[in-house]
């Protein structure tokens, strides 16, 4: 009996209305966050679950897409040029530890540059001091600690170049 009442049309309509309201509320919150945090970027898209540490050190170009669960740690500068794509759960991190120093290890940080059209795959990690060239593709789960030339496609662990050039 209770099941038929809960699934009756009025309850179904209320539930659908609340889902729609939640969708629009999340979209509005994301839009406000984008405009407040990166007002100079046009056509920027990221999720409410995207984390930006040290936003003042982040510069984002136009038409950039950042997936859910991405973390951008910008102890040093992070520059994302136009048309950069970062897939879900990727990590962009400029800071690390100086293991040559005595305990507690001090932080060191180096800038990251993602050039026009770079694509970072799901779960990939880009470490400080790296420049990812134009139209380069970093495959899912790849850890990048060295510069990636333009048009390169890196996949696997350890990363290997597919020897294909993309738009370079």
Commentary on this structure:
It is a single chain. By secondary structure, the chain is of the alpha/beta class. The protein has helices spanning 2-6, 9-37, and strands spanning 51-53, 58-60, 65-66, 71-73, 78-80, 85-86, 91-93, 95-97, 107-109, 112-114, 119-120, 125-127, 131-132, 137-138, 143-144, 153-155, 160-161. The strands form four sheets. It has a six-stranded mixed β-sheet with strand order 3-6-11-14-16-17, with no helix packed on it. A five-stranded parallel β-sheet has the order 1-4-7-12-15, with no helix packed on it. Strand 16 (153-155) and strand 17 (160-161) form a beta hairpin. It is globular and about 65 Å long. It starts with a helix and ends in a 7-residue tail after the last strand.
What is the approximate shape? globular
Strand content: 25-35%
Output the strand order for the largest sheet: 3-6-11-14-16-17
The level of helicity is 10-25%
The count of strands amounts to 17
Poorly predicted runs: none
Mean pLDDT: 88
Helix and strand run: HHEEEEEEEEEEEEEEEEE
Largest sheet: 6 strands, mixed
Gap between N and C termini: 65 Å
Roughly how many Å is the radius of gyration? Answer: 20 Å
Q: What structural category do the secondary elements indicate?
A: alpha/beta
- Count of alpha/pi helices: 2
SSE arrangement:
Layout lengths: L1 H5 L2 H29 L13 E3 L4 E3 L4 E2 L4 E3 L4 E3 L4 E2 L4 E3 L1 E3 L9 E3 L2 E3 L4 E2 L4 E3 L3 E2 L4 E2 L4 E2 L8 E3 L4 E2 L7
Parallel strand pairs: 1-4, 2-5, 3-6, 4-7, 5-10, 6-11, 7-12, 10-13, 11-14, 12-15, 14-16
Antiparallel strand pairs: 8-9, 16-17
């Amino acid at each position: 009996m209770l099941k038929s009442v809960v699934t009756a049309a009025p309850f179904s309509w209320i539930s659908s209305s609340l889902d729609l309201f939640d969708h629009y509320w999340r979209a509005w919150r994301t839009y406000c966050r984008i405009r407040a945090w990166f007002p100079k970027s046009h056509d920027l898209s990221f999720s409410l679950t995207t984390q930006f540490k040290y936003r003042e050190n982040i510069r984002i170009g136009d038409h950039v897409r950042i997936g859910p669960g991405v973390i951008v740690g910008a102890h040093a500068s992070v520059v994302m040029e136009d048309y950069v794509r970062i897939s879900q759960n990727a990590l962009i991190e400029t800071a690390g530890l100086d293991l040559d120093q005595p305990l507690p290890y001090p932080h060191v940080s180096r800038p990251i540059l993602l050039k026009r059209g770079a694509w970072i795959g799901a779960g990939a990690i880009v470490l400080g001091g790296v420049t990812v060239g134009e139209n380069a593709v970093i495959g899912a789960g790849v850890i990048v600690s060295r510069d990636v030339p333009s048009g390169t496609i890196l996949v696997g662990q350890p990363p290997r170049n597919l020897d294909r050039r993309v738009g370079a």
